[in-house]
């Protein structure tokens, strides 16, 4: 069995009286695609936000490559190797596609004011390296022809692709995709499935939040199901499909049937 | 559209030609006060002095543009940094010490920068309107401190601030450069009132202008180099979406602080040069009004575009001097111009190219949606 890259240990997150996440434990093995599913409001995105440092957990721990990342700043966590996309696209609209990806690539760079001002070798090296990597990623996503377009002017699908490229540019080991297929038509969803597999084949580990059951079942190695902030099931796609608790969570049960 | 065409033509030229054009433009800028061109020259006020003021506004606008235009931090107390630069020079060269100006200026810019960090470290955690209020307070605090502190010369101010060092002999300089004299259709060489290279005296203001222009050019080049680097991208990303930038690995707080202190650096430099030319400063030179004028220069020109804010600075500093006879209507004209601008060009006179492109596409899409023939035409272009 491969190594655990991310280990969430009894994570609890409360906003005042509301418990958004209640004692959730999950882990991701290196090189796998883990699906995180659940009905609306189950706490999937909250879980993402806790992992990427947006919210500090009320209790529990999050280990990334064996090291706790609780309390780290968001940009430090990114530097450690966790990148993410957003449920509602959050690109930098006035920057070009290429520049958006460059911002991601800059996460691993350290050029500062003076280095840039005097055009020291480090600036040139990092600039070239970042540029090459950014173009490579844009090509990988199939949007290299639009490198000089403003992010705001890209089509919806391309914006989603650009977000993934930008996240990949930060040099992560784990990529968290927050509903990447939202708003896609079936054909585009199939394309996206291939893309996510290709991302994994490049050596990234993927954590995927998704509503579309077919997409999740088709692409993931393992699935964790959340409902009302609690983990109700975990297992391979086929296990999850037949799990009564999951079916109940998604389809609802009559009151008499509920135990 | 016209604006874009000009830019594309300019960038389409081979590099040596472009460099030559820039050098010619710079030479023309340096020669401007000697040419004494009609219409442009200011009747009744010394043209060199006006041009010096313009360069100071240009410096301030470039500095403020880094804070407001690039990093998106609304700073209403920029005059505070300007005052810190000016007062540091005043104290070090006249009031409490006798330093030469060339030593005092670096200390002044560092002092402004440090004050930028001190102000920014606690306040840059607040965003938007709140930051504007805090900085507004900062500008006033600096001025009121100067009014009330005897150590800073209180309301009487500081006089006898050091001039820049002369190059060559104090009487005649290294050489003399004549001005032009424009008569009725004839151009004469005026050898009676030449500018001495390089004597910083009391009457001839041209050397100060050259000093200011040199500072503007250096800051402009630095601005270009920094903007097209990791630092510039980090600023822009922070401005566009701070949370997303942070999650993409940009240490936003650090970069905001950097923008703040870089802006303060340039503001301090402008203040120091101003104090040296003026020879005398008091708290009245640093009213809140100036913060607003500086910001107006940036906004009028087009925040985020260095050429735009330079144009804005030139207009804000030059027009009131050129049309001095309408002095009584100055504020009225200024207000009317701002209202006109807000309706006709809400992004400023020369908005950043990106904004122009984004707007254009939006418009094309709108036209397409309406399904008019013109719309399809526009989209095809």
CATH superfamily of the largest domain in chain A: P-loop containing nucleotide triphosphate hydrolases
CATH class placement of the domain at 36-165 and 200-326 in chain B: Mainly Alpha
Could you give a short account of the major beta sheet of chain A? 6 strands, mixed
- Cα-atom radius of gyration of chain A: 19 Å
CATH class category label of the largest domain in chain A: Alpha Beta
User: Helical element count of chain B?
Assistant: 15
* Rg over alpha carbons of chain B: 22 Å
The CATH topology of the domain at 36-165 and 200-326 in chain B corresponds to ABC transporter involved in vitamin B12 uptake, BtuC
Q: Note the overall shape of chain B.
A: globular
Which fold name fills CATH's third level, the topology of the largest domain in chain A?
Rossmann fold
Strand order of the largest sheet of chain A: 6-7-8-3-9-10
**β-sheet strand percentage of chain B:** under 5%
Q: Unreliable stretches of chain A, pLDDT < 50, 5 or more residues?
A: none
The CATH architecture classification of the domain at 36-165 and 200-326 in chain B is Orthogonal Bundle
Topology of chain A as a string of helices (H) and strands (E): EEEHEEHEHHHHEHEHEEHH
User: What is the typical, i.e. mean, pLDDT of chain B?
Assistant: 87
Number of strands of chain A: 10
Structural class of chain B: mainly alpha
- Largest beta-sheet characterization of chain B: 2 strands, antiparallel
Topology:
The complex is a heterodimer of chains A (259) and B (381).
Chain A: E1 4-15, E2 18-29, E3 33-37, H1 44-51, E4 59-64, E5 67-68, H2 74-80, E6 82-84, H3 97-105, H4 113-117, H5 121-141, H6 156-169, E7 174-178, H7 186-201, E8 205-209, H8 213-219, E9 222-227, E10 230-235, H9 237-242, H10 244-251
Parallel strand pairs in A: 3-8, 3-9, 6-7, 7-8
Antiparallel strand pairs in A: 1-2, 1-4, 4-5, 9-10
Helix pairs in contact in A: 3-5, 3-6, 5-6
Chain B: H1 2-12, H2 15-35, H3 47-70, H4 78-95, H5 101-123, H6 129-148, E1 175-182, E2 187-197, H7 206-227, H8 230-240, H9 242-247, H10 252-278, H11 288-301, H12 306-322, H13 330-344, H14 353-370, H15 373-380
Antiparallel strand pairs in B: 1-2
Helix pairs in contact in B: 2-7, 3-7, 3-10, 3-11, 3-12, 4-5, 4-6, 4-10, 5-10, 7-10, 8-10, 11-12, 14-15
């Amino acid at each position: 069995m491969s190594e655990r890259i991310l280990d969430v240990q009894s994570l609890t997150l409360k906003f005042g009286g509301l418990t958004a996440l209640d004692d959730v434990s999950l882990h991701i093995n290196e090189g796998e695609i883990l699906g995180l599913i659940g009905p609306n409001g189950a706490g999937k995105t909250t879980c993402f936000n806790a992992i990427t440092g947006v919210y500090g957990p009320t209790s529990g721990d999050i280990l990334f490559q064996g090291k706790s990342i609780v309390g780290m700043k968001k940009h430090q966590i990114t530097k450690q190797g966790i990148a993410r996309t957003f449920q509602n696209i959050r690109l930098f609209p006035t920057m070009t596609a290429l520049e958006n990806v460059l911002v991601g690539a800059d996460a691993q760079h350290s050029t500062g004011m003076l280095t840039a001002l005097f055009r020291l070798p480090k600036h040139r090296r990092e600039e070239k390296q970042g540029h090459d990597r950014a173009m490579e990623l844009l090509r990988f996503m199939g949007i290299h022809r639009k490198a000089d377009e403003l992010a705001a002017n890209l089509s919806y699908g391309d914006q989603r692709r650009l977000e993934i490229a930008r996240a990949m540019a930060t040099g992560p080991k784990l990529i968290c995709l927050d509903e990447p297929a939202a708003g896609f038509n079936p054909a585009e969803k199939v394309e996206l499935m291939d893309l996510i597999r290709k991302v994994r084949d490049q050596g990234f580990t993927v954590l995927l939040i998704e509503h579309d059951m077919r997409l999740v079942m088709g692409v993931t190695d393992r699935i964790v199901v959340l409902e009302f902030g609690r983990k109700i099931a975990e297992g391979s796609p086929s296990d999850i499909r037949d799990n009564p608790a999951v079916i109940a969570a998604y389809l609802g049960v009559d009151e008499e049937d509920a135990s | 559209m016209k604006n874009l065409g000009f830019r594309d033509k300019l960038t389409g030229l081979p590099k040596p030609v472009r460099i030559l054009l820039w050098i010619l433009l710079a030479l023309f800028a340096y020669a401007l006060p000697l040419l004494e061109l009609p219409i442009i020259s200011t009747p009744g006020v010394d043209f060199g002095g006006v041009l010096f003021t313009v360069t100071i506004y240009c410096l301030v606008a470039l500095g403020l543009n880094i804070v407001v235009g690039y990093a998106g931090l609304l700073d209403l107390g920029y005059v505070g940094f300007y005052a810190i630069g000016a007062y540091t020079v005043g104290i070090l060269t006249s009031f409490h010490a006798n330093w030469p100006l060339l030593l005092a200026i670096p200390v002044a810019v560092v002092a402004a920068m440090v004050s930028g960090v001190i102000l920014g470290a606690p306040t840059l955690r607040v965003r938007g309107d709140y930051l504007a209020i805090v900085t507004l307070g900062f500008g006033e605090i600096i001025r009121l401190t100067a009014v009330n502190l005897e150590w800073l010369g209180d309301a009487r101010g500081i006089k006898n601030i050091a001039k820049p060092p002369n190059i060559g002999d104090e009487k005649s300089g290294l050489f003399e450069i004549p001005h032009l004299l424009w008569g009725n259709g004839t151009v004469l060489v005026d050898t009676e009132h030449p500018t001495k290279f390089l004597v910083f005296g009391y009457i001839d203001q041209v050397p100060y202008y050259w000093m200011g222009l040199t500072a503007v050019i250096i800051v402009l080049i630095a601005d270009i180099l920094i903007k097209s680097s990791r630092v510039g991208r980090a600023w822009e990303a922070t401005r566009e979406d701070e949370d997303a930038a942070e999650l993409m690995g940009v240490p936003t707080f650090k970069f905001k602080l950097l923008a703040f202190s870089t802006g303060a650096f340039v503001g301090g430099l402008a203040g120091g040069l101003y104090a040296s030319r003026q020879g005398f400063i008091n708290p009245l030179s640093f009213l809140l009004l100036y913060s607003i004028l500086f910001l107006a220069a940036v906004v009028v020109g087009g925040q985020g575009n260095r050429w735009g804010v330079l144009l804005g600075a030139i207009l804000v500093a030059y027009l009131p001097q050129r049309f001095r006879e309408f002095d009584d209507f100055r504020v009225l004209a200024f207000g009317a111009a701002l209202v006109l601008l807000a309706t006709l060009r809400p992004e400023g006179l020369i908005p950043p190219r990106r904004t122009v492109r984004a707007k254009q596409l939006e418009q094309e899409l709108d036209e397409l949606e309406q399904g008019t023939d013109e719309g399809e035409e526009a989209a095809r272009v």
